[in-house]
Amino acid sequence: MKKCCVFMVLCLITVLSSTIKAADYQSHAARLPHGTNYIDFRNIKVAYRDIDMRTPVKVKEDTLYTVVLDLDFIGPNTFDQDEFPVMTVCVSQDVDCETVNMSVDRTRSFWHVSFVTTADTVLLQNVPVTGLIGYNFMMYEGSYADFKGFEYYVSYEPITYEGVYIMDYDRPKSKAELREQLTVSDPKGGPISVDLIESTFDEANLDIGEYYLKYKATDRMSNVSYFKLVIQVIDRVAPTITGQDTFTIEQGKTITLSSIVNQMVITDNVDPLTPDSIEVLKDTYTPNQNKAGNYEIELSVKDRSKNETRKIVTVNVKDIFAPYFIGPSAIYTYLGDGGLTAESILAMYKAMDTNDGDLTHLMTIQMMDYKPNEVKVFTVYLRCKDQAGNEIVQPVPIHVIDDTAPVFQTTEYVMTKGEFEAMSREDVLAWLSAKLQASGVEATNLSILLDETEHLENKRRQAYIYYSYEVDGKVHQSRLSIEYPKDQTIKPFYFIVGASVLLIGATSYVVLKKLKKH
How confident is the model over 408-419, as pLDDT tens digits? Predict the structure, then answer.
């Protein structure tokens, strides 16, 4: 009979060893567990009459830990025979190992042992078990007195779900009614326990605001999920804003934003709101309070339930300033300049407005009795009107001055084609300057405007060089005549002689070239 029991234990050990996978146990052992239990069965190596951890597990240093096993996992025979069981606690493989006695709780059919860690890792060795039925093998932080029942190793961090329930203040729900909003299921099947573990919701003292209920769902293998139900207790009635819709002021005078806001009256069915509760969403008036125009101020007020009411207030700043001109206060002109036109006078001015900016394109002029050929002081009137209808009329005196002066006349100078070609451009200009000076003209800025000798296509007896110069700031123009020589004809005798010479020379060149090759 005893041999049969041993055979059965060996078979169970073989089956258990083949089904436990250690794919993740090393990475899990390098961190603290997500749950209470530190025993990951993937980290367990089963021997003939005991089990060992494959690799040390992460723990808290200088901390009390307790190991608990139940009768099914120990095995009835082992539980009865080993009245004083022991196990080995190491920091790591063969490092700081200590054999500790395990206590027997016969009332509950448990073995348990407590120890204090000396490092941040622990390796359990030689745990005397043979039953291996179930999964009630647990190591946790604390004493045996803290044991509240077996919990299984949690491989992954628990999932926390979250939802929001909007509750009308006038239609409250109880905690029981809120629990009914949740449906909990286990994808693998099996029983699930759901516990309320945290709550800030007090149905007896309900108020506007946000609260929550936190539930914990646990399946039979200690897998845990959490659900946080956020409860927003709201009031559905929005506040009201009453007050003046439009404020009209003259440009140059101001009204403050706080003055406008403080004139508003705020009411709400629940919350005691005041003008201090108002938020300014838009304000185009304050940065433009010295400019004429219509501006908007958008106000908003919210109660604790986020119900919002908005109001738009218009500020009308009335334009009372006329445009102004930028330009000369008087105009001086000379008879020699020719007459001034309305366009030429307007081009001297710009019309600007404090609010409308550049209004030059709206300027007009009244020329009155202006006569450009009469020496006199005339008055013209500039006018401009802005968009608000403010107009400016500005008189401008025009002084017409007599500036008639002597007029220089020069003769047309003549130069032969040969003389002209023998001279550089600078020589020609120097020659012209000397000619002008000889005739009593002190010329400056002498320059050639056009040289016909460079552009003539048909032969003719003469071409012209056009030039300009200044005398006392006035520009004069004249021209220089270039005389071409008469055409020369070649006599037949000289043509025949020349052709013969060329023929003889060409023949001699060819004969000499052949002799050199030979």
Answer: 455 678 888 888
Structure tokens at 346: 């307007």
Q: What predicted TM-score, i.e. pTM, was given to this entire model?
A: 0.40
Same domain, 397 and 282: no
Domain encompassing residue 273: 240-318
Q: Given the DSSP bridges, would you call strands 103-105 and 110-116 parallel, antiparallel or unpaired? A: antiparallel
Of 288, 374, 296, 291, nearest in space to 339 by CA: 374
Q: Which two tokens stand for residue 99?
A: 């054999």
Dihedral, CA atoms, 452, 456, 462, 463, nearest 10 degrees?
Answer: -10
The pLDDT-based confidence of 421 (bands split at 50, 70, 90) is confident
Contact (Cβ atoms closer than 8 angstroms) between residue 194 and residue 166: no
In a domain, 204, yes or no: yes
Three-state SS sequence of 102-159: CEEECCCCEEEEEEECCCCEEEEECECCCCCCCCCEEEEECCHHHCCCCCCCCCCCCE
The length of the chain, given as a count of residues: 518
Q: Which residues contact 133 (CB under 8 A, 6 or more apart)?
A: 72, 73, 75
The reply to whether 501 falls in a domain is: no
Say which amino acid occupies 227: F
pLDDT at 511: 38
Side-chain-facing half-sphere of 294: CA atoms under 13 Å: 6
Number of domains in the chain: 5
CA distances for 219 relative to 154, 216, 309, 330, 423, angstroms: 11, 10, 49, 100, 116
Q: Which residue has the tokens 């009865």?
A: 80
Same domain (yes/no): 307, 421: no
